[in-house]
Write a structure and sequence with these properties.
By secondary structure, the chain is mainly beta. It has two helices and 33 strands. A hairpin with a 7-residue loop joins strand 11 and strand 12. It binds fe (ii) ion. The site of fe (ii) ion has 8 residues, from strand 20.
């Protein structure tokens, strides 16, 4: 059976391009958008002889950069992240030392902090990359970080701290919390006891607390020794819980609260509501339950709100929408704070050429559009990219002079199945269901990937 993650727009691109010239645009790019959209995703440089040995989550990271300035799209380039894993695959490893597990595939996200551009994947250390994307080096916070780092750190907009965690499957402590100060120095690490190694893709951070997701997708050593790329399995009997820790607390101060078994890749946002904590997540009923070493999402994920009340030890769950979604994003300047608007990719369970977003080879879901949630009015708006077109994660960029919480733009890449090409669409977030204000026609296909960030030219 062919591997669906090597077909259609999941298939890797084989060329690195450098297009330092204006790109064709329909519409008008807002001059406010002065910077670079940088996106990351798996793009295996060498496909295994047996396609079944390839797992989407393990492919070599490739970055795609679209540069905007002066109301124009002024360039595009794509580069594999120069990891030791890539060098080993290409036979160019010799000067750079052996590949270690902590190298990671560098395929999940890219963020900026303290003047550095960090490429992230949860199984490894970050890679710091150069502005031209040509160079990458493992970044360990001046030897202060010796264990993996999540691909979903939280930048506190008030303090400039980068708050993140890492999980380690090979031995305790299975979980650590870290804080980097605004200069980039790692100033705190706390070890947190877990009874077992679990996959923990994301977490929540509010102004005062962090919330860990201890959910029953467990590391499976038997699968690991077989060499499978994703040695994790579903074990709901182990229970599920959320761990709450004050941001100034010690690792053994975490308080755990039971929640119904489920899985969550992504937190949309979280905030303090008095003593209570509101955590908005994209929730799966189950994940990683078949086949062995593979993934499955037998029911599509939906956006839910968990309200954690530490005084009563209870968690209330409200389903915010029944539309299947993934890749939730918000205005990052409101991270960890009360917020009104969120943006997600819509998953359409209708006919498509691709697999489900978590790896199921069963029911196929298409990334068929985008949705904007108004969580105060309990309303939503949809962006429809048109027939035979699929959409990436949405990235929100706030307008410089914006006063409303949705005054800005939403940037996403759109893949067209009929032409096998990709565009960058720029939506006015205040007119979300209308046509894009601009569509940039890109010189290369951008495969379905994971996450990206907007890098203003000022950073
Ligand atoms: Fe993610």
């Amino acid at each position: 059976m062919a591997n669906p993650y090597l077909e259609g727009n999941y298939a890797p691109v084989t060329r690195e391009l450098t297009e330092d010239h204006p790109l064709p645009v329909d519409g008008a790019i807002p001059p406010d958008l002065d910077g670079r959209l940088l996106r990351n995703g798996p793009n295996p440089a060498v496909v295994p002889a047996d396609p079944d040995d390839y797992h989407w989550f393990a492919g070599d990271g490739m970055l795609h950069a679209v540069d905007l300035a002066g109301g124009r799209a002024v360039g595009y380039r794509n580069r594999w992240v120069r990891t030791r894993k890539l060098a080993a695959e290409l036979g160019t490893l010799a000067p750079r030392g052996p590949v270690e597990p902590i190298d990671g595939p560098a395929n999940t996200h890219v963020v900026h902090h303290a003047g550095r551009v960090l490429v992230l994947a949860e199984s490894g250390l970050p890679h710091a990359i150069s502005g031209d994307l040509e160079r990458a080096r493992l970044y360990d916070f001046d030897a202060m970080l010796t264990s993996p780092m999540t691909a979903h750190p939280k930048l506190d907009p008030a303090t400039g701290q980068l708050v993140f965690f890492g999980y380690d499957v090979f031995g305790p402590p299975f979980l650590r919390l870290h804080v980097a100060d605004p200069s980039g120095a790692l100033v705190r690490s706390e070890e947190i006891d877990l009874p077992r190694a679990v996959m923990m893709h994301d977490f929540a951070v509010t102004a005062s607390r962090v919330v860990f997701l201890d959910l029953p997708v467990e590391f499976d050593l038997d699968l690991a020794v077989t060499g499978r790329a994703m040695p994790f399995g579903w074990n709901p009997d182990a229970g599920a819980r959320l761990g709450v820790l004050r941001r100034d607390g010690r690792g053994d101060d975490v308080r755990w609260f039971a929640v119904d078994p489920c899985f969550v890749f992504h937190v949309m946002n979280a905030f303090d509501d008095g003593d209570r904590i509101v955590v908005d997540v994209v929730r799966y009923e189950r994940a990683f339950d078949a086949p062995p070493g593979g993934l499955i999402a037998s029911a599509p994920p939906v956006l839910v709100r968990w309200t954690v009340d530490p005084s009563t030890g209870t968690i209330t769950q409200d389903v915010l929408d029944d539309v299947p979604v993934e890749f939730p994003r918000v205005d990052d300047t409101l991270a960890g704070r009360p917020y009104r608007y969120g943006y997600c990719t819509v998953l359409d369970p209708g006919p498509t050429t691709g697999p489900g977003p978590t790896g199921s080879r069963g029911p196929a879901w298409d990334q068929s559009g985008l949705v904007k949630y108004d969580l105060v009015r309990h309303e939503s708006e949809r962006f429809d990219p048109g027939p035979d077109r699929s959409v990436s994660e949405p990235v929100f960029v706030r307008a410089h002079d914006g006063t409303g919480d949705d005054e800005g733009w939403v940037l996403a890449t759109v893949y067209d199945r009929t032409s096998d090409t990709s565009d960058l669409v720029i939506l006015d977030a205040t007119s979300f269901s209308g046509p894009p204000v601009a569509t940039v026609h890109l010189p290369a296909r951008i495969p379905f990937g994971f996450h990206g960030s907007w890098f203003p030219s000022s950073v």
